[in-house]
Amino acid sequence: MDGKRVVASADASVLKVADQCTCHAWNKDRSMLAYCPNNNELHILVKGSDGQWIDQYNLKEHDQVITSMDWAWETNRIVTCSMDRNAYVWKFEDDTWKPTLVILRQNRACTHVRWSPQENKFAVASGAKCVSVCYFEEENDWWVSKVIKEDKAKVPIFGSTVTSVAWHHGNILLATGSSDNKVRLISTAVKGVDSKRPKSMFGVDKPAFGKVVAEFESTGWVEGLAFSPSGATVAWTGQDSSIYSVDIGDMDAPIDQSAVQVLRLTFVLISSYLLLLSFTSIFVPPLLCPSLPYSHSHSYSYSYSHIPPILPRPVSTLP
């Protein structure tokens, strides 16, 4: 497959890469695209000077289907996770992508992975009812993990498969969505990795690693999850064809639920304070905008519109 050209249509926003694609990720300037064609292979497309896309790299380290990937834009590293219960960090050296195995300590398939805003950690969700927060140990030159699975009383945190994760721009707070219909906000401060642990978070003094500081419930499995660029709002989608949002700055604020007449919603992205993009099992995403001014009593209107695939990632700053 190395060097194979990929034909793009006249519409530059449509690029046919495979009959099926389980996940994908862009590099910072959108000149490279990593994707998995529903197997154990990581393909990386490179855009040539003539504007044509070339399937330049075909990497086969995983044993089973790659379920999720993310590209760290500043450090230029790719992380992948798979049904084989493993994760790899790929680094470009000597004109090739070299993998490093991550010690996840999971006994079920991985479902979702995302880099933290500072790109010094990443979180891997799993069917084992847990999340592994991974970081690099300089002295041992490998990636290790701390697993979020139980609280201090050994009570399980998650009631079912963790389906999605999303980072707050502060690099400490992690949102998780799972098929027990719940979204949880969890502290992930790692000694020696994060500069300092927050003094307080949602009324919890000096929350330790793995401490659930907030929990929200929906009426369907959580599929997609995202923070707003400001970090003040978290939104998620579910299999009940609804979009949920809540102001995490006001713990007494109600959860806003908006149902749409489409198939199940699988992905959400907040690209500005007022815009929600939600992708469904059909191929055209609905666009939703709350009424002005923003409030918890707002109503949503939606329409089917083609959204260009290239969207800027919000700049992440520490609070």
Describe the structure.
This protein has strands at residues 4-6, 23-26, 32-36, 42-47, 53-59, 66-72, 77-82, 87-93, 96-102, 110-115, 121-126, 130-137, 142-148, 162-167, 173-178, 182-187, 200-201, 204-205, 212-217, 222-227, 233-238, 242-247, 256-259, 265-270, 276-280, 286-290, 300-304. The chain has 319 residues and is mainly β. The protein has a 5-stranded antiparallel sheet with strand order 1-5-4-3-2, with no helix packed on it. A 4-stranded antiparallel sheet has the order 6-7-8-9, with no helix packed on it. It has a 4-stranded antiparallel sheet with strand order 10-11-12-13, with no helix packed on it. Helix content is 0%, strand content 47%.
Q: Which of globular, elongated, flat, extended, rod-shaped describes the shape? A: globular
Number-wise, the strands total 27
Strand content is over 45%
Main sheet strand line-up: 1-5-4-3-2
Question: For the report, how would you describe the main beta sheet?
Answer: 5 strands, antiparallel
- How many helices in DSSP terms? 0
The averaged pLDDT comes out at: 82
Helix content: under 10%
Order of helices and strands: EEEEEEEEEEEEEEEEEEEEEEEEEEE
Radius of gyration: 19 Å
Low-confidence stretches: 282-319
Secondary-structure-derived class: mainly beta
Distance between the termini: 45 Å
